């Protein structure tokens, strides 16, 4: 992969910054392992829907 290839570390950092999600998945992969742009974007898309699912399932906390 090229020198600017993204890693799982990049992915988990972006997921946290964009969606406030921290996942234990990061403890099960090598954070420095490079992943393809396609897989990176697929993972971002998957994580992007989680906040809405949690809001629908558990309700939005209006006090937060």
Automatic annotation (TrEMBL):
Organism of provenance: Lactiplantibacillus plantarum (Lactobacillus plantarum)
Name under which the protein is recorded: Uncharacterized protein
Domain of life of the source: Bacteria
